[in-house]
Structures are given as C-alpha cells and as structure tokens.
Design goal:
This protein is mainly α.
C-alpha cells in the first residue's frame, strides 16, 4: 500500500507536469510544491476543474482562486498588451486593472490620455476617469467629466454614472444633489455597492434611522444572495456599518 506521503508526492508531480504541458503560469509550480496537497487542490479548483466542467459557476470559482493567489496577474497581462500595442482598447483594460489594484493615479492618466480625438466623448473612458478622480479625492475635476458624460443621452445617464455623481456631490458638500443621485442609483444598480454607499452617506449626514433601515435591507439581500457574491456584498455592508458606528 502506497504511504500517504507517496500519494501526495505523486499527486504534486502529476500536477506539475500538467502546469508545464498546458503552459500555465509558472507560479503554480511554487504553490503546488511549497504547499503540498493544499496547493495542488487549489490548482485543481482554479485551473483543471473549470476546463473539465465548463459552466459559469466553475469559471467563477477558478477566476476567484486565481485572483486571490495572484491579484496582479490581470494587470501584468494588460500592461504587456498595452506596451506592445498601445491602442485605446488596451488602455481601457490596463486602466481597469490598475483601478482594481488601487493604482488610481495611473488609471486616471490612462483614461485621460485615451479620451482624445474621436474618443473624447467615449462614455467608458469618461466614467472610468471620473471614478479614478473620485478615488483620488479630486471631486472638482471629476464633476465636469461627469457633466460631459451626461450630455450623451443614450449612454451617459446610467446608474453607474449616477453613483459617481452622488459621490462627487457628497465630496463637494452638495448633499441634496448627492441624495438624489445616490437614491436613483441604489434603486437601479445590481449588487450592493450603490445601496451600501447610499446607506453610508445617510449615516454621515445625520440620517441615522434611514441608514439603519438601509443596513437592514442590505442584510436581508445578503441572506438571499448567491454565495459567490456574498464576500463582495459584505464589503459594502461593512462600509455602511462603519459609517453608522462613526455617526
């Protein structure tokens, strides 16, 4: 009977062979070898199962595992693409990856530089730049960008744009306008970001009872949410709860 250690070693070797033959990222070799069995199981969940099973759930599990183990992978890939071919599309991908890592100044610069010529009114570029400016606390600069975006009646007046407007108005102390924008976005955006930000705004502006009611609604939505989305949902719940605790 093969000892457990032998089985674990054989399991790791087979997975390493799979990494090399299928040309996966080399960091998987370190994970498999440095964290015996557990590292291999993570590799199976992140790489092998999604390929075998297909389907949205399997792909999401694999994507989440890869993102957790290597959060900079998407950024590195996008940067390599952009450095090789600096198109507007590659600039968008790199800016989005930079935002995900908190590199807001880099993202703002990419969005700004890409929004030139025929792309000057591109709604994705304008909203991306506005959100980067918001994260940098440059609300006065973000407002005219969002106003320009709003001139596009077909693509510029979306719930995502309204959420950004709410954050800008709040940052500028224009709370009545912020309330309208947050409320409109919260009722239309999927997920809990808009609702969580609105609840936090209510708490920060002294409307504690309304904020508590919104937090209770968030808790109810989390209970019925897909388990895959609960981690992100709880982040927005925590944002609202922290604002309530500080109010």
């Amino acid at each position: 009977m093969i000892p457990i250690f032998g089985l674990s070693l054989l399991f790791s070797i087979l997975l390493c062979v799979h990494v090399v033959r299928t040309r996966q990222e080399m960091f998987w070799l370190y994970i498999i070898l440095m964290i015996p069995t557990l590292g291999g199981l993570v590799y199976v969940a992140a790489v092998i199962l999604p390929g075998l099973l297909g389907g949205r759930t399997a792909r999401r599990v694999g994507s989440a595992a890869r993102q957790t183990l290597d959060p900079g992978r998407a950024y590195r890939t996008a940067k390599a693409d952009y450095d090789k071919t600096p198109t507007v599309a590659h600039a968008m991908h790199l800016a989005a990856a930079a935002m995900a890592l908190g590199h807001h100044a880099e993202a703002e610069s990419l969005y700004r530089d890409a929004a030139q010529g025929v792309h000057a009114d591109d709604p994705t570029l304008l909203l991306g730049r506005a959100n980067a400016l918001i994260e940098l606390g440059r609300f006065a600069e973000a407002l005219p960008v969002l106003e320009q975006l709003g001139e596009n009646l077909d693509h510029g007046r979306t719930p995502h744009a309204a959420l950004a407007l709410g954050r800008v108005y709040e940052g500028l102390g224009r709370n009545a306008e912020a309330d309208t924008a947050y409320d409109w976005a919260a009722g239309r955006l999927p997920g809990l970001e808009a609702y969580g930000r609105y609840a936090a705004f209510l708490a920060r502006t002294g409307r504690r009872a309304e904020a508590q009611e919104a937090l209770s609604e968030i808790d109810d939505r989390i209970k019925s949410a897909d388990p895959y989305f609960r981690r992100e949902a709880r982040a927005w719940r925590d944002l609202a709860a922290a604002a309530l605790n500080q109010a």
